[in-house]
Amino acid sequence: MDEKIETLQKMIDSSSNIVFFGGAGVSTESGIPDFRSQDGLYRQQWKYPPETIISRSFFDTNTKEFYRFYREKLIIKDAKPNITHLKLAELEKAGKLKAVVTQNIDGLHQKAGSKTVYELHGSTLRNYCMNCHKFYDDSFILESASSPDTLPRCECGGLVKPDVVLYEEGLDDNVVNGALKAIAEADMLIIGGTSLVVYPAAGFIRYFKGDHLVMINKSETQADEMADLVLHQGLGSVFEQIRA
Ligand code: CNA
Question: Which helix (H) or strand (E) is 84 found in, with range?
Answer without folding.
Answer: helix 83-93
